[in-house]
Amino acid sequence: MAESFVQVATDGAGKSIDTYVPGTYHRQVVVIGDPNTAANVCSVTSSGALTMQGAQSSRTAGTITTSSSVVGPVSIAQYNIATISVYGTYAGVTFIVEVSDDGTNYYPIQVINNSTSQAATTWGPLTNSTGTYDACVGALTQIRVRATAWTSGTANIGISLQTFVYEPVIASMAQGLAASGTTILGAPVLMGGTYTTTLPTVTTGQAVNLQTTARGEALVSLSSGGVAPVVTAASTIAAAASPSLTVALSPNTPLALTTNVLQACINNNVSATGALVAVKASAGNLMGFSFQNNTAAVAYLEFWNVVVGSVTLGTTAPTCIFALPASAALTVAPGAFALLNSTTGMAFAAVTAYNGSTTASVTGSIFYK
Fold first, then answer.
1. Can you give the pLDDT at residue 26?
2. Residues 12 and 79 grouped into a single domain
3. What is the residue range of 2's domain?
4. CB environment 128-143: b (16+ within 10 A), e (fewer)
5. Residues 6+ apart with CB under 8 A from 105
């Protein structure tokens, strides 16, 4: 393709319109660039594509050294993307990015963390964190970074602006603000639970996180009418002040889930004297019982998860105790859960006082497997 030109008639010497001649045709040459200099000219690739790039401003620098530090404002006229950089040696810094359309009133704007693709208006508290954040500023006129919290040190802040011929597509992915076993940052939507040494107290209509143990196990309360049972060590349980059922569940003796309870239970008749007897000499489960108190005073049905030879009435603390009112009957039917799980043996006695040594006259049966 030969280079040529078309002479401009009356506009002075050296003035012309540049053209290229592909074959026998003239084509006008058009240059896209800065009218004030010959250096800033758009280029064309070998395949005929026009290459363009956005303009970028110089970096505006500032620092956060107090809880009210402000970096900016910076004019963002003719720019559509702002990049905020943060680095330094500091602790406890929280900041927000704000924009304005009149230079007087400022509003928070959502920015994207370029390393995590998370979007937020407030970032922190941060300690020695390094990163960049992008904000799409559109037709706004000013931008600034304002601290809302600071503990110590200096957080260096940079604000850089750029223009794109199109709005960049910013990827965003859903993920928590903290990995499992690490301290939670911000207010993420939790998919698991929270461990606290003191359980929260909430009122009607309030939201609350699921609670877990220190090992991440879900805490579940079995309750009736809003009143949860108390689980306590068998050695510290107190007898009921009035004739009523008292149950001690040892933390080290979990309730055992069983199947085919009624078919698997063995009926073991207990003598009317209530004397210490062996329910079972090996591992097993106490599934239920039915007793009649033959006296005019409260009797205490006591069970041990050891063999009968290891029990001394009045000395060996029972594993669980049931108070049987005077001249009354009490039946606990076998169910899906065991009342007591024993690994070595099981013993029973009925006495006249809590962990007492005097036997009480009762008649009944014990269901076990």
1. 59
2. no
3. 1-30
4. ebeebbbbbbeebebb
5. none
For 23-34, write each residue's pLDDT tens digit: 555 566 677 777
Instruction: State the number of CA atoms in the 13 A half-sphere of 256 facing the CB.
Output: 20
Tell me the C-alpha distance between 197 and 206, whole Å: 20
β-bridge mates for residue 147, sequence order: 95
For residues 115 and 172, is the Cβ–Cβ distance under 8 A? no
pLDDT at 11 over 90: no
**String of DSSP letters for 325-346:** -TT-EEEE---SB-SEEESS-E
Secondary structure string (H, E, C) spanning 315-329: CCCCCEEEEECCCCE
Specify if 168 maps to a domain.
no
- Per the structure, the count of domains in the chain is 3
Residue the block writes with tokens 């500032």: 62
pTM of structure: 0.42
Same domain, 248 and 360: yes
Q: How many CA atoms lie within 13 A of 25 on its CB side?
A: 4
Number of neighbouring beta carbons within 10 Å of residue 365: 14
For 222, 228, 229, 337, the CA distances from 225, given in Å and listed in that order, are: 10, 8, 11, 21
> Token pair for residue 116?
């995590």
Question: Most confidently modeled of 38-42, 52-56, 259-263, 328-332?
Answer: 328-332
Give 142's strand partners: 75, 100
